[in-house]
Amino acid sequence: MVFLKKMNMMSLVPLAFVTYIVFLSPLPCFPEELPRIAISLSFDMEKRVMEGKSSITFPDHREIRVHTGPLRIKSLRYNHRSLSPVIREGILTLEGEKGGVLDMEYECASNGHGPCSIGTKGIFLTGNWYPSVEGPAYHRLRALVPRYFTAISEAEEIKKEETPGGNLFTFAFPHPVEGITFLAYPFSIKRETFRGIELYAYFLPEDKGLATTCLEYTKKYLGLYEGMIGKYPFKRFSVVENILPTGYSVPTFTLLGQEVVRLPFILDTSLGREILHQWLGNLVYLDYEKGNWAEGLTTYLSDHLYKEREGRGWQYRKRTLIDYDTYVNPGNEFPLRDFRSGTDSASRAIGYGKGSMVFHMLKNLVGEERFFKSIRKFINENRFRKASWDDLRTAFEVESGEDLDQFFGQWLNEKGYPSLELSNVEAGPKGRHYAVSFDIVQKGKPYLLDLAVAVKTEVGDTNRVLRLYDEKQGFDILTEGKPEGLVIDEYCDTFRKLTPEETPPVIERLLNLDKGLIVLPSQGSEEIYSRIVKYFEDRGYGTKKPQEMGSKDLKQSPLVVLGYDNPVIKRLFGKMDEPSQGLVLSMRKNPFDPSMIIGVVNASSGNEVDAAWEKIPHYGNFSHLVFKEGKNTEKRIKESQRGWDMPLGEPVVGIEVSKTKKLPDIINSVSDKRIVYVGERHTSYEHHLTQLETIKGFFRKNPKIAIGMEMFQRPFQQVLDDYIAGKTDEKEFLKSSEYFSRWVFDYHLYRDILTFAREEKIPVVALNIKREIVDKVSKNGIDSLTEEEKKELPDSMDMSDEEYRERLREVFEKHESAGSRDFGNFYQSQIIWDEIMAQSIDEYLRKNPDRKMVVIAGSGHLAFKSGIPKRVFRRNSLDYALLLNDESVETGIADFVLFPQPVKMVSAPKLMALLSEEKGKVTIKGFPDMSVSEKAGMEKGDIIISMDNEPIKGVDDIKIFLLYKKPGDTIDVRVLRKRFLFGDRELSFKVTL
User: How many domains are contained in the chain?
Assistant: First the structure.
């Protein structure tokens, strides 16, 4: 029986997801005559038993069939003739009989979980508490309750008579319903009148103070909806408090559980929703077997409408799309037409969420005025009868004059939602305008969609609504101003799959997954997190120790990471700047794949976990939670992209030339900073001269400085120290530091800086990691490193800077070998590179708190402060300034951009031979055009033995030798030439450089 089924589901709804069930679901259309049920009740309060009498009058055409459920039938008379009841599976049937009067006496005992709840605190009857029939019927009810109780049921007229046995209540409702409910409590009643409607607040004595405010809100909502969808359909409306945890609407009243009605937000949200159900569900009944349209429409005109009026409708719709993506999967998804009631998160996401979005799109399609005209038409034509989605469609087609068959068909009958892609995006001038062109691709079966698009320009937005209907469509938009960005569906008006950039990492996504990995805490804190481990293991998660986590695990699995001191935290995020006391749950996007999530849990004790963990599911739409002693002290949602946003170019910015500063003035303005970064393009000599001038300027201000250099690797720090201290000469320094094999750029570019540091005994700090490690990770990932190599990795790494990640992706994709390499590995190698330099800077400054530092590095490691500066700041919070050379002036790129004049550098002369080194021998592999070595007589295959009698054991020996020569010098090169017949021969050649 539909009525019984619905009532049972209602009683099981948990308060955490207060679900509002419409009570009625009658037959497709009412016959001219319906059954009439007259009920009389009395109660034995000591025995907790309800005594009932019912007289059911069936029309002549109607079979005698009654649902008795758990009732104990005491007597049965049919047309005044006594019968012995024969009941099978809770149904009493009189075979062969049609029409007539069935009189029954019965009782229902309260047992704590059945349809009858009877006790000293009150009476609550719901579900199959009286003999009922299939479908709608007219009801009359009389009930005798204890003197201290007030009773309520569905009724437009309620009469109370005081008798010696108690209070006798009579309820009359002139409209057919599928079932009724009954309550009796020691209510405190407040009554008012609004626009001819009798308003009541039935509150328990301890909560009667809420009644006045509740009725004020009731009047506000009645006024709102009367103006929107038509006159309130009944003579009275009551807000009724129930001791039991209920929350639903029935004709003429809404029933709210005591814990619910005390919540501060209920009056602003749920009360209005239940009042709206008086029209949608209690005036217009559900054609339940053909789908539940009422919850989606009610959600749209209540919860969504209230947010829309606050200017936050787009946020509500975005939340709806996130919930759908979180809870609905191929295993539990079904078409909207198949929605009956919200029994779990997935069904609510479909029936309430998708349903409300369908009505939002429908309003945008037909226009707001026609939308509400259609709703009013639908209500007026279906008063007190069952209506379906098809009836809704007919009303909208009549009012709008449009054929909506495809619209309703795709949204009601198809699973899922559209998944869109952008391609071939171009922007540029077109005559006196600008043009933005792009393709939109619908993956899978195409929908008929209206999609809002905005082109952001320097003079304002250009807005369009695009009609989609095919798998791939091209569009062109003309703008007055230069395009800066393309934003699709900025206000979340379309039911679609959000992009990863639009989707914040929320807790419910983690709780709703049935697989993932728990990264166990560091040794010694396992017991603190034992409850959390079991929680996720019960949901299918596996467990691993931190040292067992490989790159594949980090990249391919949703993670629950336990403890801020977990090594995986340092590997992914560097550190957590969150409270460490109490229990903290913070959601992060996976740096390797933003579509996946990572939950970081930190607890200061097992007691904090026990006090808070069971409350976590109630905060599922947040990204960050803090609990202390079980009380929530902080909650927030991490920011995400609004709309599907694609940059089209940065705005042109200019500099007021009259306000430009000379380098000495810039140095003065940043001299109070502990760290100054000066970026370079490695081959631009003028950049290195600027770096030198900055170092000198800083040194004049305070000689207690150090120079941090990307060009040298940490294992060679002692070599640097010895050279700066004057213990070794330049040749030995270059040889021992392996400069020419590890940095390769012309040493003349940096010679002046190192000479000044040596003369003034300024410490030079080797910032970089061994090149072999970065290359190895870039090719094969961190897991390819040996245990010894892993010891050289930075102590923490933050991979969560998404803007930096995208800039690196652009660099990666410009490389010819990008197609054969893994970006994730490349990204890791770059982060290792940045982090080790940040660690080197931090370590030196901690050991030398009296010194400042000038850091020289490639601009790619410094621009927008993402590579090195922010990572140093994460470690020590020291003030810094960033100077870049010859970079485009963009917001946030640096504190100062310098534009030095080009300076030609006198480079060391070259031998002009292609060389290879193996086992202490340098062999000529070939010559470039116009080679001075080839002109002197040297040949491919010659082994270079010496130059001006200085032995040559490696290529760096040649580069060091040439460093002290000038173009035009003539040198003596001695080689070993192998001959097939006559044996090897040493030859000497005069080479003019």
Answer: 7
